[in-house]
Write a structure and sequence with these properties.
The chain contains nine helices and 22 strands. The chain is an alpha/beta fold. The protein has two domains: 267 residues, no CATH class; 51 residues, no CATH class. Strands 1, 4, 5, 7, 8, 10, 11, 13, 15, 17, 19 and 21 form a twelve-stranded mixed β-sheet that branches. Strands 3-2-6-9-12-14-16-18-20-22 form a ten-stranded mixed β-sheet, covered by helices on one side. Strand 2 and strand 3 form a beta hairpin. Helix 8 runs antiparallel to helix 9. The longest helix has 17 residues. It is globular and about 70 Å long.
């Protein structure tokens, strides 16, 4: 299957993309995205970064441009953040009727398309400034297609107590949705953001989101991403952040859904004394393929990063973890820790784990560890001796293994909801 076939399949999607508001900068960005996508084409297994993520099933389908979906009934939406602001996107477009965009001092949260019109001098230089579309064909395709999304600005010094919860719902079959989210955290602010991706019942869609986060000096952001789409859908996303000095960015990636799912997450640590967290929980079963590529990019001295990924794999599922820590020549006194652990529950599962360290500085402390194993039979036996059935013992052990990462989340209602969803998924 050739790259030309891929391009032919997606050319009708590009030509049928919904127009953006009148903005020269937006039009130029979309044109740049199309050029980058045409230059790269869709990757093949011959490319190392895509070796374990086959695209044949995606390329063989006849995709259509995403359309405005039917209304999603509010009672069908579940919310994790009890005190949160509610932001709903349906098929890539902000739905104001379903959203609760109450005015909060120091916070702007609304449509990305509208932000292009309302704040052109602020928005135009930001959108596309972080996402690397020249090395990610699906991010390039998103840039060529995107119509709307969410723009969040936390103003200088603002302490936002309400959780900002964004839910994207896909409702169509054989459609491509390309929403974008941009988060601007200004100097000395703090906020908590929950970003969820789900489908309305069964939706054989392809979602290719791009999320960019600009975290300026002394800002503190906690950002939780939950991908729980239907098992007949596909999800390929890019999540990039850029941190300034003395900032703290805690990023949690929870991946449960989609038949094929991939997330490239790149964190640029570009200011001294910045702290980055990049943690993940993956739970795959049946014939799912879930792929996570992460990169912690240390560009300056005196920064810390911490990464823990836990993966539970059952049935005939396949999981990929590729974690990079890149330390530049000038990034002395870097402290970076990466841990990747996988639990295999079936002899037919597959894990491809590739931790990578590229270090060009000589005064650093960088470690990584990767383990792959099965249920500890001694622990199972110990629990069974106390009256717990074999099935219950296994469920509790697996749950405890994965829930360790969820305990790091500070939003209590979100943590409890994710723990319940994890328990359901494991059962």
């Amino acid at each position: 299957m050739s790259t030309l076939t891929y391009e032919s399949d997606f050319s009708s999607v590009v030509s049928g993309a919904r127009p953006l508001p009148v903005s020269k900068a937006a039009a130029e960005l979309r044109a740049r995205g199309l050029e980058a996508f045409n230059t790269q084409g869709l990757p093949t297994p011959k490319q190392e970064e895509w070796k374990y993520f086959p695209l044949r099933s995606i390329a063989d389908r006849s995709w259509q441009p995403g359309e405005s979906g039917p209304a999603v009934f509010e009672e069908d939406l579940t919310w994790m953040a009890e005190d949160g602001l509610k932001v709903v996107m349906v098929n890539g477009q902000l739905d104001r009727n379903l959203s609760d965009l109450s005015a909060v001092k120091g916070l702007h949260c609304g449509s990305l398309a509208s932000a292009y019109v309302e704040f052109p001098d602020l928005v135009e230089p930001l959108i596309g400034s972080i996402a690397d579309i020249d090395n990610n064909p699906f991010a390039a395709l998103n840039t060529a297609l995107f119509h709307d999304g969410v723009f969040i600005r936390v103003e200088k010094g603002a302490m936002i107590e309400q959780t900002i919860e964004i839910v994207h719902v896909s409702t169509g079959d054989n459609q491509v949705f390309a929403p974008r989210i941009f988060i601007l955290a200004e100097e000395g602010c703090s906020a908590k953001i929950v970003e969820r991706w789900q489908t309305d019942g069964s939706s054989k869609s392809l979602t290719i989101p791009v999320v960019e986060a600009k975290v300026r000096e002394r800002a503190v952001i906690e950002h939780i991403r939950i991908q729980d789409e239907a098992l007949d859908s596909c999800h390929i996303g890019l999540w990039e952040s850029d941190q300034a000095a003395d900032s703290e960015y805690k990023a949690y990636n929870i991946a449960f859904g989609a038949e094929q799912a991939r997330l490239d997450q790149n964190m640029m640590i570009g200011g001294e004394h910045a702290v980055a967290r990049l943690d993940g929980v993956v739970c795959a079963h049946k014939n799912q393929i879930i792929d996570n590529h992460t990169k912690l990019d240390h560009a300056v001295p005196n920064c810390n990063s911490f990464e823990i990924y836990k993966q539970v794999i059952d049935d005939k599922a396949s999981v990929v973890f590729n974690g990079k820590i890149f330390v530049h020549l000038d990034a002395q006194k870097t402290d970076a820790v990466q841990t990747n652990q996988a639990l295999l529950l079936s002899p037919d599962t597959t894990i491809n784990s590739k931790p990578q360290l590229e270090i060009f500085a000589d005064d650093v402390k960088c470690t990584h560890g990767a383990t792959v194993g099965q249920i500890d039979e001694d622990q199972r036996f110990y629990m069974m001796q106390r009256g717990i059935s074999a099935e219950e013992a296994e469920g509790l052990l697996v749950y405890a293994f994965a829930a360790e990462v969820l305990e790091l989340i500070s939003i209590e209602s979100v943590k409890k909801a994710l723990e319940a969803r994890l328990y359901d998924k494991l059962n």
